[in-house]
Amino acid sequence: GCGGVAPAPRLTVLIGCTRSANLSSVKRMLLGKGAEEMDEALPLGPITAQIGQSQQRVTVIEGSRDLVALLDTLMVADIVAFVAQGEEDIDAKSMHLLHTSKLYGLPAATLVVVQGVDGMATSKRAQVLKNWEAGMAQATGREVKVVGQKSDDVSVATRFLANTKIPDRPSWQSHPMVLAESVQRAPDDAQAGGEEGEVLIGVTGYVRGSALNPNMLIHMPAQGSYQMSKITVHADPCPTGKSTSASSAMSKEEELLPDSPEELTMDNEVDDMDAEQTWPTEEELEGAKTSRMYKGANLPIDDEAPEHDPDEDDEEELDEEEEGDDDSDVSEPPDEVVLDEGSDDDAMTEAGGETMAGGEDFLDRRSRAKEDKDFPDEVDTPVDMPARVRFQKFRGLKSVRTSPWDPYENLPVDYQKISQFKNIMASRLRARAESKQGVQPGKYVTVWVRVPMAFADKVLEEAPSGDNSKYQPLVIGGLLKYENKMAMMHYNVSRVRDDGDVIKSKDTLVLICGMRRFEIRPNFSECKGTDKHRVLRYLPPKAATFASCYAPVQWAPAPVLIMKKQKSGVMTVVAAGRVAAPDANRITLKRLVLTALPYKIKKRKATVRFMFFNPTDIHWFKPVELWSKEGRRGHIKESLGTHGHMKCIFDAPILHSDTICMSLYKRVFPPYPEEPARQLRTLGEIKMDVRGVADGPVAGAV
Asked: How many CB atoms lie within 10 A of CB 467?
């Protein structure tokens, strides 16, 4: 933690908790500026000043009521100050902002300024302050300092800003960040050398977090990543008493130019010849005949597997899992049509999935989710198609925990585009070590970057200048090594609240991860300590879940928010968590469960039916182990007749009420994004986190 003089001014973000909260007066109070000292209102942008007689400096900025802008500001915040009217309750929007900011990560140092209580009686004032202290401590999950606006309270608040210990924030201190205090456009003579349609702009502010290296890529939130043209180091405009002489000595500006900048390319080049296969030799063919089955009761290879008519595909229910991996499966013949397990509820609309293809509505989607909860992964064996064709991509495993599965087997072509790490921990430590070189935190710099002209005009229009009513905070950050490369990213997330909405694997969602926000279509899987993880069709309401997708590398620790765009256009926060790791070898398996019913039972032997409908299928799946819902284990002994009856033997007698099951597995991958570099400019309207409340106050919130 930081308890001494901070290298950069302590950034304090003001957040209004009630409708009539006056942030401007609190900003003036914390900066030590009385009403008689300023004839005009304070600007909306950040203002830096020295705190009283101390050597500490503070930068105060008013937090936006827009969620995305507020989250950008909280990335660089050291202290958060909530402002509220004493006799009002927290309104719904403020509660939503507070709740979402807490999920994303609030600074530990928390101040609460209660207005409108200075004229109250002493006992009533004390009771109001006590109520706000208890309410905000419960809402933030940490101790808070509550003050009013009397002269004594002003000194208490300034001492809190100057002397409170600032705990470390590993999620943000590993990246260099700059909160823009001014934005300027380079002169016309400096614009030469760039591409057409690009403009050179300079973002000025204090370096926070870690060192800023000119070779790094700089990320503009909602826009993308760019190479820096140069970094100009200025003299500190608000030096402390101890650093006045050093700052005055540094009258000449220093410029740092990149010598080996990071590449902007996110995808690796795909070699189409990588999938080229030569005809096997006689020795390889002979060896394949002697080992036609994987260890662990995996399914054998059948050279005479029957082919089915592609026209029958329209009559089957296709699962969405095939969208992302069938087209890129390098081991499948290009003309082969493969069917998978059924479910027609996967074709998504761009509006966010409330209305599905084929007339499926929200209620139908919920009923399917409930059915999957009651009968997880169970599917019906098709009557008009051989099961060995229907499930030819699946295999059986004797034990999900111990049976081998080669992580490099049948990888999609998309795996050539991503970066894979032999040692994830070593790569992360190397990236952190290289980030310690450059302009150290606390320096006042201007970062020059070439950006598209439209974005430059937008940034200049919203820049902090005077009483600019269009002001929006701009926080830029440097990316560590490899963080601009695409990888198979995994995020450990949990549902924020169970509001009845159904979130399905490969739904189009919006991910806010660190400084970046983009669309993803993740696969959800179990969070267990094994090398193989079962894919979940739906995001569970309570359990911790892994969300896997192709995304830019983000080194842990970093917070994660997942949002869903509803049909009405508003965004809802559906899950929150943290970054796990960029691991391309994490195996996520889709499970199918085929079921059958006992027909005749004699001790440990039983005649079973309805799992298959022809003897060839029974022989094909004979190596796979059977299990029952009552906990029995067994295997297929032989086929009986021509209609799919089979004789099975179990480790103990079974009951007629029991259900016989067979598990089949297949590795699945999420779909690759069409535009990996595309960042979302804005998320639009964010839906309130309090159901049934639009703008009214939340009664009893405090």
From this structure: 11
Q: Residue type at 281?
A: T
Block residue for tokens 């029995």: 632
Q: Which residues pair with 590 in a beta bridge?
A: 666
Q: For 591-616, write each residue's pLDDT tens digit.
A: 999 999 998 988 899 999 989 998 99
Smallest CA-to-CA distance from 133 within 154, 153, 152, 111 is with: 111
Residue 52 Rama label (left phi>0; alpha psi -120 to 50; beta): left
Residue 503 region by backbone torsions, left for phi larger than 0, else alpha for psi between -120 and 50, else beta: beta
The sign of the CA dihedral 691, 695, 697, 702 is positive
Which residues are CB-contacts of 90 (< 8 A; sequence separation ≥ 6)?
17, 18, 84, 98, 135, 139, 697, 698, 701, 702
Model pLDDT for residues 12-67, shown as the tens digit of each residue: 999 999 888 888 889 988 887 654 454 456 777 899 888 877 778 899 999 888 88
- Scanning 423-513, the segments in alpha helix (DSSP H) are 424-434, 453-461
227: CB partners within 8 A, 6+ apart: 217, 218, 258, 261, 262, 264, 449, 450
Whether 384 shows a pLDDT value over 70: the answer reads yes
User: Which of 103, 42, 117 is closest to 74 using CA atoms?
Assistant: 103
- The sheet carrying 57-62 orders its strands as 47-50, 57-62, 10-16, 79-85, 109-115, 145-147
619/646 Cα distance (integer angstroms): 10
Please state whether beta strands 444-452 and 224-234 pair in parallel, antiparallel, or not at all (unpaired).
antiparallel
Please state the separation of Cα 658 from the chain's center in Å.
Answer: 42
Contact 513, 540 (CB under 8 A): no
Six-digit token string for 657: 């009420």
Q: How far is CA 269 from the centre of its chain?
A: 26
Give one word for 101, left, alpha or beta, with left for phi > 0 and alpha for psi -120 to 50: alpha
